[in-house]
Amino acid sequence: MAKEAEAAGEFRAKDYHDPPPAPLFDAEELGKWSFYRAIIAEFIATLLFLYITVLTVIGYKSQIDGGDECGGVGILGIAWAFGGMIFVLVYCTAGISGGHINPAVTFGLFLARKVSLVRAILYMVAQCLGAICGCGLVKAFQKSHYSRYGGANELSGGYSKGTGLGAEIIGTFVLVYTVFSATDPKRSARDSHVPVLAPLPIGFAVFMVHLATIPITGTGINPARSFGAAVIYNTEKAWDDQWIFWVGPFIGAAIAAFYYQYILRAGAVKALASFRSSSNM
């Protein structure tokens, strides 16, 4: 009968139960090698992410400065570099660390109780250190170009700080919302007959957001990316605007976590129903 139903195009969803929320502090994970392997994976992935993308940015800027306005990868190519690297690195590290590569993503998943507090903090530290080392490699290999072009996120002329902050909030919301949607185990259980490669929509989200916001802020949506480039570039302008690239992504991630968990997944309704049920007993 099962084969006949499958042949007729009818698919039965797998049984699914929401996993329990991650504890704020899990002492057991501190004694597991998989925990430290995940932290190392986040460090290396963020290092590689910054190395490739910042090299792409300063390479394009150097060609434009040299008068070759029609050469280079252009803004489209820069957006592809960021989105493509996220696709590759999330694909490589998803089974090890979850492939966050972004403190805002980690923060959103922590708010949704997908990761513990200790794991979230150490992920963010590893991501920021990886970003610093990645930009450090770029500067070591192309010191003159890096000192001139930097690749750090800065608010473009003609835009207010409010506009820059709004762009970062909305851009990060798009990214984190996509992360929640693409990695939702409930969706995988219900749509198991439809193969979904999670890194692909996540990479496309990064690509599309870069197309929209590169002219405004250079596109942060990743505090580690903005922080690492600012540390190595170390100019007054980069540090003056640095708060935008932390506050904006964290707000955007928080809104995305709330929207997906409590509205789309009806977390608030389920909690209220559970409360009423226990009260009537």
From TrEMBL:
Cellular localisation: Membrane
Gene3D superfamilies, sorted: Glycerol uptake facilitator protein (1.20.1080.10)
Membrane-topology annotation of the record: Multi-pass membrane protein
UniProt GO molecular function: channel activity
One GO cellular component term noted in the UniProt record for this chain: membrane
Stretches that traverse the bilayer: 35-60, 72-96, 116-138, 196-216, 243-260
Keywords: Acetylation, Membrane, Transmembrane, Transmembrane helix, Transport
Primary localization class, coarse: membrane
InterPro entries (alphabetical): Aquaporin-like, Aquaporin_transptr, MIP, MIP_CS
Family note: Belongs to the MIP/aquaporin (TC 1.A.8) family. PIP (TC 1.A.8.11) subfamily.
Protein name stated in the entry: Plasma intrinsic protein PIP2.2
Species in which this protein is naturally found: Helianthemum almeriense
